[in-house]
Design goal:
Strand content: 15-25%
Number of strands: 7
Number of helices: 10
Radius of gyration: 19 Å
Largest sheet: 7 strands, mixed
Order of helices and strands: HHHEHEEEHEHEHHHEH
Length: about 220
């Protein structure tokens, strides 16, 4: 969300600049992430298994309008790729971790050219909850990831890549649950602002993704 988009808000929300400043203030102070963490604690999330995965996010041209030399601009370069029509588009990687019922727990953003493994460290370190297993696809089949999970006494439910000399077995029954994280991305991308990035800063974009994630927890909250 930026100032130009806030100008299209309904009149009952008040002045667009006030809405934009409040949103930015909540983003910087981590309000939306705190809401997500609080809901997960209140609902008592499923710790039988967590799942991680990533998806590609397209970025509109307005998302790259930061001043040259900006520290933020240098910190989050976009990757360029060719889509079906052959013209370039800007992309980033959105990584998510969800619980055993497919409810979002935390999210990170990486440059579009980064490998899935780059998102594992931040996602794994953001939560201290004790889980029984972690499910991920072949993109996360790395010795460093398996060693990290072994040290935490967490079962690695990760298929092995075809180039691994000695295949490592995994629980195929549990691996069937991994579709939940893919379905999570499908739900999040129903929000246009998640499927396509318009925000100039990564923190503003992730703030809205966290807000969209909060809505997925609300049906599980029961008020006494």
């Amino acid at each position: 969300m930026d100032g130009a988009q806030c100008q299209h808000l309904p009149d009952e929300y008040g002045k667009w600049n006030s809405v934009f400043r409040r949103y930015r203030r909540w983003v910087v102070t981590g309000v939306f992430e705190a809401m997500l963490e609080t809901l997960a604690a209140v609902v008592e999330r499923d710790v039988s298994a967590d799942m991680i995965d990533s998806t590609v996010v397209r970025a509109r041209h307005c998302a790259v309008g930061l001043k040259k030399g900006s520290r933020i601009r240098r910190a989050r370069p976009f990757a360029r790729r060719l889509h079906n029509q052959g013209s370039p588009e800007l992309v980033e990687g959105l990584h998510a971790r969800c619980d055993g019922q497919g409810r979002p727990l935390c999210l990170v953003l990486t440059p579009g050219q980064a490998h899935d493994v780059k998102g594992f460290g931040p996602l794994f370190g953001m939560l201290a909850d004790r889980i029984e297993a972690l499910l991920a696809d072949k993109g996360y089949d790395a010795d460093a990831i398996r060693q990290e999970l072994a040290r935490a006494d967490i079962e690695a439910v990760i298929p092995t890549n075809s180039n691994r000399r000695i295949p490592i077995p995994h629980d195929r029954e549990k691996y069937r649950w991994r579709n939940l994280v893919e379905r999570l991305f499908s739900k999040l991308k129903n929000w246009r602002r998640v499927a396509t990035r318009y925000d100039k800063t990564a923190e503003s974009y992730l703030g809205f993704v966290a807000l969209a994630s909060v809505t997925l927890w609300l049906p599980f909250v029961h008020v006494a």
